[in-house]
Write a structure and sequence with these properties.
The protein has about 230 residues and is of the alpha/beta class. It is built from 7 helices and 10 strands. Helix 1 packs across helix 7 and helix 5 packs across helix 6.
């Protein structure tokens, strides 16, 4: 199995975004755990596992096959998965193809994650589970409780027309709850409740040093800024 064989919507620009953020943290911040809320077949979790430092832990929380029976998933989301409903067995097989040991796996609604992960223990949280407003809002509140100072939260599908609940929850947190955007791709938004400037500067430098991606000019949102990370030519 190769990495590209794993199904999912984890595009190269976000593979770079994850890697650059986690590399920056590995060089510049204290140790901390990694958390993924919604993992599908494990493509992004595998990359996250590659960036763990000794003593750190990766936790993934997903309903897996229980997504078809949980009341908190609406019919649209159930229909989206259909025959593609991921199983825990598939996730574990994919992860083991790249790592000798599995991460901590919580097969439960993401709203329970604070029962399994300690407050202020994480440096990186990826939110990619239910896209309903109430669930994304709950996941955002959990991320704030679990992240260390200057920890990074990443939101999937923050701008898709099919996911207005995600957009509403993300921008509510930015405009009302002191969440600071750092940078965005077409698929994901990267943010922090800490200081966004050091990481934003590092991302701009990494993009400039690459031969395939770029950052645009910063865009002001109230007293905050955000940049776009994209492939060159886009």
């Amino acid at each position: 199995m190769t990495y590209d064989d794993i199904p999912g919507w984890f595009y190269p620009i976000d593979q770079a975004g994850f890697a650059w953020v986690l590399d920056f943290q590995n060089d510049m911040t204290p140790p901390g755990d990694l958390l993924e809320l919604g993992t599908f077949m494990g493509k992004s979790a595998i990359l996250m596992g590659q960036k763990l430092k000794p003593g750190e832990r990766l936790t993934v929380c997903d309903l897996f096959e229980d997504v078809v029976t949980w009341d908190g998933v609406d019919q649209t989301e159930k229909a989206f998965f259909g025959s593609r409903t991921p199983t825990r067995q598939q996730f574990e097989a994919n992860y083991r193809a790249f790592h000798p040991c599995l991460p901590e796996i919580v097969q439960a609604p993401t709203g329970t994650i604070c029962r399994h992960v300690a407050p202020k223990s994480c440096r990186f949280v990826h939110i990619d589970a239910s896209h309903l407003y109430a669930n994304v809002r709950e996941d955002t509140i959990s991320a704030r409780q679990l992240l260390q100072d200057n920890g990074v939260v990443v939101f999937d599908d923050y701008r898709k027309p099919e996911c207005p609940g995600t957009a509403a929850a993300v921008w509510e947190a930015i405009l009302n709850d002191a969440l600071h955007p750092i940078f965005a791709t077409d698929a994901k938004l990267y943010a922090t409740w800490g200081d966004p400037e050091p990481l934003r500067a590092a991302i701009i430098a990494r993009a400039r040093a690459s031969d395939w991606c770029r950052t645009g000019n910063p865009v002001a949102i109230r007293d905050m800024q955000i940049i776009r990370l994209a492939r060159r030519g886009k």
